[in-house]
Amino acid sequence: MNNLSIVGRIGKVGELRFTQSGKAVIGFSVAVDNGKDSDGNKRAATWFEITLWEKQAESLEKYLAVGDRIGITGQARMQIDEKGDQKYHKLVIDFPRVELMGDGNKEKDDRPAQTRPAQNNNRGSSSRPAQNNTRRNEPEIDGSDIPF
């Protein structure tokens, strides 16, 4: 069984696009920290490419921000891209199940302001009264917005 689960931080988020047949698609990368080696030196992160399609892409696009923690579960595969004489290997996770795990350091968001999601406390809130939320004041998310 090919099943991979990772927890990392969102690196780069693409723009929501639509195929010629009208299907929504968005891609983003996730960096997974590999800790330190026996000498205490930080190891390089492992990067994964994630693609969301249709309702999942449309629903989650506004919640994907650089630096945010995210959990992904899906099928792993190695994709080989070629540019000229060079071959590039990418770890890709297909059919992902996504779990948003909280905001990262918003000061590190290097996307231009017009491509960043709105950063206000009403993001994802519903018409229900706010509940006392002890998890770092995360906004309440209406479950009907998320397709899984």
List the helices and strands and how they pair.
Elements: E1 4-13, E2 17-18, E3 24-32, E4 46-53, H1 54-60, E5 69-83, E6 86-102
Parallel strand pairs: 4-6
Antiparallel strand pairs: 1-3, 1-5, 2-3, 3-4, 5-6
Describe, in plain words, how this protein is organized in 3D.
- The protein has 148 residues and is mainly beta.
- It has a single domain, classed as Beta Barrel (OB fold (Dihydrolipoamide Acetyltransferase, E2P)), CATH 2.40.50.140.
- 5% of the residues lie in helices and 41% in strands.
- The protein has 1 helix and 6 strands, in the order ββββαββ.
- A 5-stranded mixed β-barrel has the order 1-3-4-6-5.
- Strand 2 and strand 3 form a beta hairpin.
- The two termini are 22 Å apart.
Q: Round the mean pLDDT to the nearest integer and report it.
A: 77
Q: Could you estimate the helical fraction of the residues in percent?
A: under 10%
The rounded Rg comes to 17 Å
CATH architecture: Beta Barrel
How many separate structural domains? 1
Structural class: mainly beta
Strand content: 35-45%
CATH top level? Answer: Mainly Beta
- For CATH, the homologous superfamily is named as Nucleic acid-binding proteins
The strand line-up of the biggest sheet is 1-3-4-6-5
What's the CATH topology label?
Answer: OB fold (Dihydrolipoamide Acetyltransferase, E2P)
**CA(first)-CA(last) distance:** 22 Å
Biggest beta sheet summary: 5 strands, mixed, barrel
The SSE order reads: EEEEHEE
Q: Poorly predicted ranges (pLDDT <50, ≥5 residues)? A: 106-139, 143-148
Q: How many β-strands, per DSSP?
A: 6
